[in-house]
Specification:
InterPro entries: AAA+_ATPase, ABC_transporter-like_ATP-bd, BCAA_Transport_ATP-bd_LivF, P-loop_NTPase. By secondary structure, this protein is an alpha/beta fold. It has a single domain, classed as Rossmann fold (3-Layer(aba) Sandwich). The chain is 34% helix and 24% strand. It is built from ten helices and ten strands. The chain has helices at 55-62, 85-90, 108-114, 122-135, 137-141, 152-164, 182-197, 209-215, 233-237, 243-247; strands at residues 16-24, 30-39, 44-48, 70-75, 78-79, 93-96, 170-174, 201-205, 218-223, 226-232. The protein has a six-stranded mixed beta sheet, with helices on both faces. A four-stranded antiparallel beta sheet has the order 2-1-4-5, covered by helices on one side. α3 packs parallel to α6 and α6 (152-164) runs parallel beside α7 (182-197). The model is unreliable at 1-11 (pLDDT under 50). The structure holds adenosine-5'-triphosphate.
């Protein structure tokens, strides 16, 4: 029987809310079946769960890539249901897709600046460049290098930097540790906490469930398109009923 925890952070208004969302692809059956996920400001919320549970689909609905069939998307108190990705980007929501998306034959700087194509104010762009170069030291030190010459983990940081050029309030990260070795994975997780500490909320999807929950503030375990259990990340990590079933064996 599914565990149902009615848990809700009441201290701060949530920045991003997906409320009772139903969504699916084309005419196929629903993938998300009445799912509610809330992301408070400047926090990391991690979605974990088995393959096919609908984690990436949650991010696609949140960023406007996939329109929900029912439910609401609320960003900073405004109902943004039905708005497309460009509109939501302008409203403060960035989506870093699964896989690698840097252009290897362009420099790190050129890749990062692509993220600012909607920002008209040159002074603002310069300010953001300074910000991301400081936040991600490898982006600063390899600014003029070809992005293709960077390691996978370093390229992921270039993608993070690019996503921050629009000064988003919330960033959606889909499997950022995919394909990375343990050392690069540790660096990527550290950078996620730095993004959060710099004031950006993060909705994170990760297969690497235990490691992700260790750096997250809150977690949601998804199964079959529903939130199976949600709560403080530390509580999920120590919940014996989740253990091997959803989080994988302890290392
Ligand atoms: N573009 C698509 N067209 C049709 N069906 C899709 C599409 N993308 C995903 N699906 C289906 O939606 C369901 C949920 O997929 P989703 O990628 O959201 O799951 P996930 O939890 O992120 O899985 P994983 O951990 O394997 O990445 C799966 O059954 C998948 O086959």
């Amino acid at each position: 029987m599914p565990i149902l925890l009615c848990w809700r952070l009441t201290l701060a208004a949530d920045l991003l809310e997906l409320v009772d969302v139903e969504a699916g692809y084309g005419r196929a059956a629903l993938v998300l079946r009445g799912l509610t996920v809330r992301v408070p400001p400047a926090s990391v919320v991690c979605l974990v769960g088995p393959n096919g549970a609908g984690k990436s689909t949650v991010l696609k609905v949140a960023s406007g890539l996939l329109a929900p069939r029912a439910g609401r998307i609320v960003l900073d108190g405004r109902d943004v249901t039905g708005r497309g990705p460009q509109s939501l980007l302008g409203a403060g929501l960035s989506h870093v897709l699964q896989g690698h998306s840097v252009f290897p034959e362009m420099t790190v700087g050129e890749n990062v600046l692509l993220g600012a194509y909607t920002v008209r104010d040159k002074a603002r762009v310069a300010e953001r460049v300074d910000f991301v170069r400081t936040l991600f030291p490898v982006v600063g030190s390899r600014w003029d290098a070809l992005a293709g010459a960077l390691s996978g983990g370093q390229q992921k940081q270039v993608e993070f930097a690019r996503s921050l050029m629009v000064s988003p309030r919330v960033v959606l990260l889909d499997e950022p540790s995919m394909g990375l070795d343990p050392k690069a994975t540790a660096t990527v997780f550290e950078q996620i906490t730095r993004m959060r500490d710099a004031g950006t909320a993060v909705l994170l999807v990760e297969q690497n469930a235990r490691r992700a929950l260790e750096i997250a503030d809150q977690g949601c375990v998804l199964d079959l398109g529903r939130v199976h259990i949600a709560g403080p990340a530390q509580a999920l990590l120590t919940n014996p009923r989740l253990g091997d079933l959803y989080l994988g064996r302890r290392p």
